[in-house]
Structure formats: structure tokens, C-alpha cells
Amino acid sequence: MKVETRAVQFDHLLVYKTTQLRENWQDGLNVLEDVSLVEGIYQNGPIFFSVNPAAGEKKFGQFTYYMPINGAVKLENEPDFHFERDFYVEEALVMRQADLALDFYAAKEKIEVYAKQNKIQLNETFYCVLLEVYGDIVIDLYIPVRNRGDIT
């Protein structure tokens, strides 16, 4: 397991928010991709998403999906979608899922253990960046460092 400290930045994002079962995290990806096809939006970077625990729930989460696109859009017929100009996290602990973690929840636990051992405080929200590598999906997990990883 290799945990690194990095920043993450993306520009021009189509954003979709939903509350759903944590195990159904891929559903939002399908919705985002369907809307981009219907609306003729060009994706120019990896899709990523954040997860916040839903209030008092362990099975549900508040998911925000982000798709980097080539420019600003306005989707008047899609109220669950909006455009954001930038996404930036100054400092986050990062782990590539390929480092032998079973899934991003297992990787999250490993980062949290690392943070505790190194006295690093983390935000609750975490981000999964989905990278397509030779036909497979590799997940980079980012957990912002508290007071240093705030989104701008």
C-alpha cells in the first residue's frame, strides 16, 4: 500500500448529485454518460465522484459525479445537473486502488489508518477518480486533508 500526498484539479465540469445506496455507486456514472450522449457533450477527462455519508446512514451516501467537459453548458431540461468551472483540492492523501485494495471503501480504510498513524486529520468527503487503463478501470482515491484540502 502506497499512500501519497497530492493535489487534484479539473476544469469545466458537468456535475450530477444524488443520494443512493453506497453499493450502487456505478449508477450515477451511467446517468452522467447517458445525459452527455443525449446533450452532445464532449468528455475530455476522467469521470470522478465524491461520497458523503448520508445523515445517520451507513448504507446510503450523497454522491456527486463530475465529468470534465470541453466548455460551459446549460442543461435546462435536466435539473439534477449543473456546470462548475473548476474543482481543486490543495492537499489530499491518495492511494491507487491497484495497490492490492479490494475496492475503494477498503482503500479508504487504509488511508484513514495511515492518517491516524501520522496524526493527519482528514475530511469526511472522499473522491474516486476513475482512470481507464488498457480497458480496465483503476480508481485513484483522494481524501482531502482537513483545512488544506478544501474545494475551491
Entry summary:
With 152 residues, the protein is an alpha+beta fold.
Evaluate the radius of gyration.
15 Å
Low-confidence stretches: none
Mean pLDDT: 87
Helix vs. strand class: alpha+beta
**What is the straight-line distance between the termini?**
29 Å
What is the assembly state of the chains in this entry?
single chain
What can you tell me about this protein's structure?
With 152 residues, the protein is α+β, with helices and mostly antiparallel strands. 18% of the residues lie in helices and 43% in strands. The chain contains two helices and six strands. Strands 1-3-2-5-6-4 form a six-stranded antiparallel barrel. It is globular. The chain starts with a strand and ends in an 8-residue tail after the last strand.
Main attributes?
18% helix; single chain; 43% strand; alpha+beta; six-stranded antiparallel beta barrel; 6 strands; 152 residues
SSE topology:
Layout: E1 4-21, H1 27-39, E2 48-53, E3 60-68, E4 81-96, H2 104-117, E5 126-133, E6 136-144
Antiparallel strand pairs: 1-3, 1-4, 2-3, 2-5, 4-6, 5-6
